[in-house]
Amino acid sequence: MKKALLPLLTLLAFTAYTLFSLLQAEQSLVQFGLQLMSSPDTAQVVIDLYILAALACIWMYRDNQARGKSVAAVLPYFALTLVFVSIGPLLYLVLRSLARPQGAGHA
To answer: How many domains would you assign to the chain?
Structure first.
């Protein structure tokens, strides 16, 4: 549980802020994304985030395989990462930290 504390707190805070932002927004998530991509400076930040998101997906995939699980187990995290970038990897870290490895006494 100790390993999961920081990712859990970050996940809860960021998810709450994301929900708050979505409820306050006067445009859809797609419209917001298109607006960000319309300017080179903000597009650079979005592209940078999605490069990091892709790296996180590669890490989740490899970690999942090393744990002997099917690729289907990480697909929900990939979907969350595609839409909300940080939420997918954060949730993966939390649940990974809470899961006990097979045959181990502690996580």
So the answer is: 1
**C-alpha distances in Å from residue 93, one per residue of 7, 63, 66:** 7, 11, 15
Q: How many residues does the chain have?
A: 107
Other C-beta atoms within 10 Å of 95: how many? Answer: 14
Contacts 24+ apart (CB under 8 A), 24-31: 29/83
Print the domain residue range for 89: 5-98
Cα–Cα distance for residue pair 101/98, rounded to 1 Å: 9
CA–CA dist 29, 15 (Å, integer): 15
Establish if 52 belongs to a structural domain: yes
Give per-residue pLDDT as tens, 67-107. 999 999 999 999 999 999 999 999 999 999 988 665 454 44
